[in-house]
Amino acid sequence: MTRPKGGMTGRAWKFGDNVDTDAIIPGKYLVLNSSQDLAKHAFENVRPNFAHQVINGDIVVAGENFGCGSSREHAPLALRDNVSIVIARSFARIFFRNAINIGLPVIECDTTEIEDGDILHVDLENGSIYDETRKKEYAITPFPPFIKNIIEAGGLVEYVKSGTQLKKREPRETETDLPW
Amino acid sequence: MRERGITEARLPYAPLFAMKYFYTFFACYESGLRVVFCIRGKSRMGQTISEKIFSKSVGRTVKAGDFVEAAIDVAMIHDITGPLAVKTLYEITDRVWDPTKVIMLFDHQVPADSIDAAVNHLELRKFAKRQGILNYDVQEGVCHQVMVEKGHVLPGELIIGADSHTCTYGALGAFATGVGSTDMGVALASGKLWFKVPETLAFDINGNLGRRVYAKDLILTIVGDIGINGATYQACEFRGDTVKHMDIADRMTVCNMAIEMGGKTGIIAPDETTATFLEERALDGDFALHSDDDATKVVRRYAATEMVPMVAKPHQVDNVVPVTDVEGQHIDQVFIGSCTNGRYEDLKAAAELLEGEKVARGVRMIIIPASRTEYQRALKTGLMDIFTDSGALVEAPCCGPCMGGSFGLLGPGEVGLSTSNRNFVGRQGSPEASVYLCSPATAAASAIDGVITDPRSD
Prior knowledge:
The structure holds two protein chains of two kinds. Chain A is α/β, with parallel strands linked by helices. Chain A has one domain: Aconitase, domain 4, CATH 3.20.19. Chain A is built from eight helices and seven strands, in the order βαααβαβαββββααα. Chain A has a seven-stranded mixed β-sheet. Chain A is globular, with a radius of gyration of 17 Å. By secondary structure, chain B is α/β, with parallel strands linked by helices. Chain B folds into four domains: 66 residues, no CATH class; 123 residues, 2-Layer Sandwich (Aconitase, domain 3), CATH 3.30.499; 107 residues, Aconitase, domain 3; 147 residues, Aconitase, domain 3 (2-Layer Sandwich), CATH 3.30.499. Chain B has 15 helices and 20 strands. In chain B, helix 3 crosses helix 6 and helix 12 packs across helix 14. The longest helix of chain B is centred in the N-terminal third of the chain and has 17 residues. The radius of gyration of chain B is 22 Å and the shape is globular. The N and C termini of chain B lie far apart (66 Å). The N terminus of chain B is likely disordered. The chains are: A alpha/beta, B alpha/beta.
């Protein structure tokens, strides 16, 4: 999976403050380990229509402390396939690390005036968010180049593997057919 | 001579070189982008417990704000987050860095409640066997309780767990924090992980807790006071004579909920109580570990004498009020258990109220000891008779309804009262259900009356 290098355009799904990991993916789905399966249940308890109506490239917009609670990496995984970026006023610590690790861009910005359904254009290259619906532009701190590379590579593991001369030991045959 | 507070890469192997920058970015983020390069001179400034533990792990003196690549003493994985961590490990290499430092157990979906859960257990079992990792499987109970009672946690150690409540181990004076599966996978491969040494937020709590006021009420008071993100990325150090007089069970309850205010860890300086607890397990540790008086930290003071039984109302953990504000609230289910309040001491506090009483008609009560050891203690001291006589359901050690992924779920419109740690929407079942959090005594008193009840009112 690779990310577009320049801008991304998508519809905003607006959430409030303190969106917790149970809201992003309810605990009963943690038996699932693939992003495709998890995506079917994203925000199921708080916005039941999200998983059905989200279009590839849509943008999640939230207030303070997005992703608080559990350390479950299933939360950013449930969003990664459909959501191009999460924009919030601030993020909870573990969620932020997990999101970057799996290649889901997350960025801090004052989201107060962005409304649900707004069409947003995010330019990570130049550090700006343009709200086309409201004709308003926001400056964001662009990712440092190394972070951008990780996101473009599709996450930390892919980045570590692709960016170097890592001599990966081949997994034994029995280990390659693990269900996860 | 001046020394830059940012470390040079000493990575386990070259491919991870890039991670140096990667983690630096995280560390910048975690510090609120306030400090990128921390230039500091050598000083005689004292250190906090957390700074001392990171200094030991890194092999040189480090301060809050420094970015370090630290050696991990112990790593814990369980049935929910383990599969993704193992997947990450296998994408990097085929061996854990040191099988003697990795502990595995199953507690979230135990015994397997679906075929998906059974497959996860099966694969993790194979993984543990192949790698030579100690796997407690389904037998022992909730991960955080088992880690502490089986002696996998020592004062001064740096421990990571693929579970946010790993911060519980600070009750013994370890620096323990929860990480995601990819971080865990990378740590399993290399034995190391990058951190920003956190600043310390010290909670100085003095005085005696009143009758039927417990450690849970104390930590709910603090979470309610500073809020759900009031301690983001900070080490929450609990001290003062109230904490000094607490047993290990109560200290675990307090440290367990540091994450509910965004804390990176909860930690309590080891003392005679810690030493006695570990001596019973034939273990030794650094019992002199403490924060120096002149170490940099923010201190918040609390008077335990003023504390009362507290309840966190739906749907946020910091929505905390005195129990008297919600007395009479109808409840459908009461759950006593979890890594927060499933120990013998918690069960005993509940049994004191339940003895000779019946759970109110129309209320379901579920009691789950946090581990096999705690289950047996309750069995041998007659607590189980009290519970079963009262009409409560007693289940085998596991996380139970706490995570809402297994049994004991709430239906639409139902109200649960729980001794666990989170009450987010849908946490214990239906998104249309509500969860209140409280101490075991408040839970027991409420189960008898069928409505939320002040445990002091008998």
